[in-house]
Write a structure and sequence with these properties.
Number of strands: 0
Order of helices and strands: HHHHHHHHHHHHH
Biased composition (Low complexity): 265-274
Membrane topology: Multi-pass membrane protein
Structural class: mainly alpha
Number of helices: 13
Biased composition (Acidic residues): 275-308
Strand content: under 5%
Distance between the termini: 61 Å
GO molecular function: proton motive force dependent protein transmembrane transporter activity
Number of domains: 3
InterPro entries: Sec-indep_translocase_CS (IPR019820), TatC (IPR002033)
Length: 367
């Protein structure tokens, strides 16, 4: 018998199946990037010219970009096209990530992830577009006019690519601030009111992040910090719609104003008098009760999903145990050997008869 328990075998097979699924999805992501790259590689030089146009249009007359490396004219557009292919494939990459993690999420979590994934993709693209159409012209207009007399502005194409890729990534990530704010509120880590109290620190932090992620100039730093601050304020506004329901019900219950004392009370309307027992629930109390009921329904749905998962795991473990027992099953002796056919049985009988005849004709040695 095997020493491994059915539960251990089931857990091991589940882990291996997850690894296989992860490998398959990573291969799909790589294949998607390669497909996009192969489709864009023929236009690599055009893509680089489009990305470099904000600087090339502002260079003084008679000056242009240069390539100081031997393989830079080929390798730089190649690198840009590959990274651009990755950016284009981001929706498909997020779809594969979603397909891998979705089975392990609860129902309310699945409802939350898809809108956030879609909005984060749009915000990332918006940040890149903001950098290209707003930030680049301002930065390059400033940099090309600050060269000392006698110095010709002729940027290297490789250095320019590294510069703009850094800005693309910085602004793309910076525009994800509303998503981060909503996630913090949704997980119950903080509240919109607490975030408003931290506004001065957020503004200072935005300028610090702008200083770290952008080149050492005030223009790009300011152009990154101000949108981060504005997006932070937008995240606070939208995070109100994603607050946990339990927190909503508790806050609404705690914020219910006390009832005014009855004028017919014996104490003459003093502040210590209690409301009449005949008064019905207020609107705030009804809303709090409805929120509590909805929260209980959500918890009940989560509990049912957990029970279904446990039942599926139990059935799988039972099936694995049956397979293990069948692997070590030995049939009885009567079923291990197949019966002889007619020819073999006849030959065996003839041989036995010959042996009997030989033994009958053997002389008796005792006489």
């Amino acid at each position: 018998m095997s020493n491994s328990s059915p539960e251990g075998i089931s857990a091991e097979q589940t882990f291996v199946s997850h690894l296989i699924e992860l490998r398959d999805r990573l291969l799909r992501i790589v294949m998607a990037i390669l497909v996009v790259f192969l489709g864009l590689f023929a236009f690599a030089n055009d893509i680089y010219h489009y990305v470099a146009s904000p600087l090339m249009e502002l260079l003084p007359e008679g000056q242009s970009m240069i390539a100081t490396g031997v393989i830079s004219p080929f390798l730089t557009p190649f690198k840009l096209t590959l990274i651009f292919s990755f950016y284009i494939a981001i929706p498909y990459i997020l779809y594969q990530v979603w397909g891998f993690v979705a089975p392990g999420l609860y129902k309310h979590e699945r409802k939350m992830v898809m809108p956030l994934a879609a909005s984060s993709t749009v915000l990332f693209y918006t940040g890149m577009a903001f950098a290209y159409y707003v930030v680049f012209p301002l930065i390059f207009a400033f940099l090309t006019t600050t060269a000392p007399e006698g110095v010709e502005v002729m940027p290297d194409m490789k250095d320019y690519l590294d510069f703009v890729l850094k800005l693309f990534f910085a602004f793309g990530v910076a525009f994800e601030v509303p998503i981060a704010t909503i996630l913090l509120v949704w997980m119950g880590t903080t509240t919109p009111d607490k975030l408003r109290e931290k506004r001065p620190y957020v503004i200072v932090g935005a300028f610090v992040i702008g200083m770290l992620l952008t080149p050492p100039d005030m223009i790009s730093q300011t152009l990154l910090a101000i949108p981060m601050w504005i997006l932070f304020e937008a995240g606070i506004i939208f995070s109100k719609f994603f607050m946990p329901k339990d927190d909503d019900s508790n806050s609404s219950t705690d914020s219910t104003p006390p009832k005014s004392p009855s004028p017919n009370s014996p104490s003459g309307g003093s502040s210590s008098s209690q409301p009449d027992e005949d008064d019905g629930p207020t609107e705030e109390e009804m809303e709090a009760e409805l929120d509590r009921i909805e929260a209980e329904e959500d918890r009940e749905e989560d509990r049912e999903e957990e029970l279904e998962r446990a039942e599926r795991a139990r059935k799988k473990a039972r099936k694995m145990a049956d397979n293990v027992r069948m692997d070590h099953y030995e049939p009885p002796i009567s079923k291990r050997y197949e019966p002889l056919d007619e020819v073999s049985e006849k030959l065996l009988d003839e041989e036995l008869d010959m042996m009997d005849g030989t033994s009958g004709t053997e002389p008796d040695s005792s006489k």
